[in-house]
Amino acid sequence: MDRAKWIEETLRLAFAPSQLVVEDESALHAGHAGAAAGGGHFRVLIVAECFRGQPLVARQRAVYAALGDAMRLSIHALALRTLTPEEWQQK
What SS3 class is residue 31? Predict the structure, then answer.
């Protein structure tokens, strides 16, 4: 399974999001030191009810925790946009 698909499945199980988009941007970083070592660059939009009342840092930490060791081993860069359903509707 490719990393983007694994990230998507892992986040779906952990957060039951109403919206989830995982983009693999690794090709945009060809030649970058992290890409050369095999680490991927990803952009994630996740909209989940469980983010309600949590500050941005807590939301991001929750995503990192869900991804576990992959954050050290196979993900070099992760751009996150973590929203509640209400925040998503306002965008």
Answer: coil
- Give the CATH number of the domain where residue 77 resides: 3.30.300.90
β-strands 19-24, 40-47 pairing = antiparallel
pTM for the whole structure: 0.86
Domain that holds residue 45: 3-90
Tell me what the mean pLDDT of segment 52-80 comes to.
95
Burial of residue 77, with CB atoms counted within 10 A of its CB: 0-12 exposed, 13-18 middle, 19 or more buried: middle
Report the candidate in 54, 41, 46, 51 with the shortest Cα–Cα distance to residue 10.
46
The single residue listed with the structure tokens 């988009």 is 21
